[in-house]
Amino acid sequence: MNTQKITIEQALQQAAQKIISASGLPLAEARIEARTLLLHTLKQSHAWLISHGDDMLSERHGQDFHHVLARRLEGEPIAYILGYREFFGLQLKVSPATLIPRQDTEILVETALALIPSKNAWHIADLGTGSGAIALAIAHQRPDCQLWATDQSEEALTIAQENARLLQVNNIHFRHGSWFAPLTDLSFDLIVSNPPYIPQQDAHLTQGDLRFEPLSALASGHDGLDDIRSIIQQSKQHLSPHGFLLLEHGFDQAQAIANIAYENQASHVSHIKDLAGLDRVSQIQF
Ligand code: GLN
Prior knowledge:
It contains ten helices and nine strands. By secondary structure, it is an alpha/beta fold. It has two domains: 8-74; 86-285, 3-Layer(aba) Sandwich (Rossmann fold), CATH 3.40.50.
């Protein structure tokens, strides 16, 4: 963007055009991105913008906006630029050490909440918690439950703990380590996880937002199922007799997951669809 004096509305128009050229987004979406980044720069709300489009953009704000827009034009995800993402009505801090919470994952949370009786003090594990999204959404809705959230990344766990503090959620125990490693001897009524499940050769890993996210949170072996296999194998010994395992997975992995579950003495497996109508979550009982 040139730094000559322009209004806020002109800055938005120029930015939207650059986003369209760089990413091919339709105008309406490019405008939303430009607006989100500009309001972040100005530390102002959408409501404020309605009556300030004709204000001049100060030189300092113009430079700051130029900087964040350049990051977006390089492909960096908006959530990392802003430093937060909304998930299940909660504002969550995110960083490149954490996956960016997805709307699809809200299906996993909704399925979990439908299983947890509202006044019961269930013990629940969230494996590979990342920003803490799933654990925080459940803990926030079910304050009588106790949750254990693990992650092998200390950096991610620090973000998750900070999110818990900011949201004043006090019923999560954070533990450092891979999957069940820090949960030896504990057993749960419900185990939830959004593990990495993309095949390591998948071309999507080198495209779009995924390029900026931690590979260890995305890719898992040649068929994407290495971590899911390991979680299913270990779940039985960590579930109470009528407990549930809920796993998010790829749209084409439901059958493979049912097979792995039955090979590991599951008694019942069902699949839940995402907003696009694709099998996205599997519910497993042993
Ligand atoms: N659903 C994510 C994606 O495709 C992947 C997240 C994951 O592997 N858990 O973009």
